[in-house]
Please model this.
Amino acid sequence: MESTILRAGFRRAITSSYSPAKRRVLIHHHPRRSYATPAEPIRAAAPINFTSDTNQFARSSGGNNNSNSEQDYERLLHRVRIVPASPSYFTATPRYTDDFLYLSSLYRKYQLLPRLAPGTEPRVAWKTLLEYRTESGEPVRQKGYAIMLSLLKRLNKIHTALLPVEVQRALQRYKRRIQPYLNRAKPIEIDQLGRARAVGRRKSSSAVVYIVEGDGECLINGRTLTEYFGRLHDRESAVWALKATQRLDKYNVWSVVKGGGTTGQAEAITLGVAKALLAHEPDLKASLRRAGVITRDIRRVERKKAGKLKARKMPAWVKR
Amino acid sequence: MIIRSLLLRHGRRALPKSTTPSGTLRRRTLTGSPSIQQQEQQQAPKNTLPSEIRDPTDRIAQDFAFFHHQKAHTQHLGTTVASHYRPHELVANPPRPQDITLELLMASQAHIGHATSLWHPANAKYIFGVRGQHDPIHIISLDVTAAYLRRACKIIKGVTARGGLVLFVGTREGQARAVVRAAELSGGCHLFTKWIAGSITNGQQILGACAKKVVDENDVSIPGFGDQLPLTAALKPDLVVCLNPLENYTLLHECGLHNIPTVGIVDTDVNPTWLTYPIPANDDSLRSVQVICGALGRAGEEGQKTRLARARQGIVVRMPSHGLNPPTDGQAERDLEIEERARLAEVAVQEELMIEAEAAAVEHVRQRRAVKDSEAPDAELAELAALEDGGSVEAAMFDRSLKRGQDEDEYDAEEDTLQSYERDRPLSSEELAEALAVDEQSGFDQDEFVSPDDAPERSDRV
Model:
């Protein structure tokens, strides 16, 4: 028992003498197991060429690289050191900090360039915080990203005729791949038969409306206006665009409307009629806007909430 | 070219042709021998514009170019202002350690301490005296400041000369630029946001994901350690420079625990024992902080230069063990490949995005144009009305559709011309200056500026 312990200790002592003072690193992988007796044959060290060069051992030899590549690497290891890849290493978010510093340097460099008039700068959908976090792989804070966004917005205000290429490149990095603001509505055109087709929506109804020059006929889902809408108010609002511009007897309306109730359907038709009418007579836009039939009413049914009877209605108060 | 001729017309107005052949010669005879400064000023008009002009037909771009042209040609006129404090220069070109004088420190208000009631008694030896009766403040002894600052400079120089990593920390508002600049000069790290507590004592958790690299004595990155680097311990600075110790007690405490020496500015209300090498000075004045931080950065720069010069001679300081093993077979190639692939992917994305951006920019310009000239619909309407008087509805419709087709053609033509602007776009400052110089010398001749590439296309278009 004692002899085994002694032997093990002895072996360790010899092993350690082969790799003297090797510092322990955090996670250490030995390339191979060490034995008391080395596996490879023992070779004598190369003869020392004594020179006045103080640093002769640290330098790699010029020739015979192939044969002594391991030795070269050993020498290389004496010369190298580990340094941070970025000077922002200690901020724990080096990529974000480097990006921020680059953008602020751009801002400093180009802050005297003329700006676009307020409101005329191109609308841009910037990357969201989540997207940026995923891209950089760093826990970027909301506040930090907000500061960066304000820099980006300022750079985006530089006059288009003078926007430097490097600023454009920098801005491009932070734009979302799909820019919804670049989408343009397809203009409504009049086909060979003189029809203009438009879609109108209100609440949960949607109406497809065709308008053609005629004598004031109106068909909704195959029925006349009076047949389809029992309520006078709905009949009036469906053709309000024509009535407000006094063109009730100049156009024929043919419409398919789906979903929702009567009010929704009537007002969906209103919007469709107005859009189709604009295709025929674009100059009517101002008067149609005054009539209130240009803007889509985006209100929908408000969702019901927990603890309430409807969207907002509170349950009646009970004493106990 | 119409575009350039417009600019040239502006240029003429800005700089009327002189009657004598050489204005510069006359200026020289007036002022005697020209100084270096003057020569620089005479060369200045080379870089008139801080940016390229993308759309030379734009009025604002023309105004801007004209303004800068005039500025470049008139800025050397008038009196020269004697040397004075310009805040940005302290950051861009900070004083070297040998430039530190008591006058400089005094001018940058490094001597002003806090109210006497706020003092820390350990600072007694740095305090020169008390100023004021009603609200007395301490005055810091500037000879001590200068001496301690020089000592700190030597320390930083020594650390960087031996390949050490210096961390500059200044977390107060406005200190960021000085800190970043000092780190840039000394090849160290910067921190201008909050110190994350535990970055030294619990570094692996906080900084474990931050990228590191292996460099040799010439600071050249060496591939082949990509598999080992993530397994090495998080880095620790070899020296910390703290510009506001009062707010960074945690940092200094962590440095103390890990035997990392610290240099810092000690105002009269700071405990100087927090720091290894205090520099008694005013830490509330940005100017004083910039002077001190700049000098320290310059010292680091000198150290780096020394180290690199010695490395070029083959003298290398033996670094403490880093625990790296020789790279395994093919790891270097793998590292390089990963790097190259990332770079190529980025370039590809960047190119794709740029193409989209160009298209978007053209679209934006087109929209702006479209908003400007909105008389087209009126003309169309008038024509339609005329048609409706005569022909049938169908005929009107047909004509209208024809008209629309023409409109589309017109849009295409407009876009074409925009692309031609894009082609002619890089009218850089040099070109502009050159064009203006030619205009000055000889008479105005448009054809001189038409490059041979452009000429046939233009003739096609005309």
Q: What stands out?
A: The first strand of chain A starts at residue 81 and ends at 84. Chain A touches chain B through 67 residues (CB under 8 Å). Confidence is low (pLDDT under 50) at residues 61-67 of chain A. Residues 196-291 of chain A form a domain with the Ribosomal Protein S5; domain 2 fold (CATH 3.30.230.10).
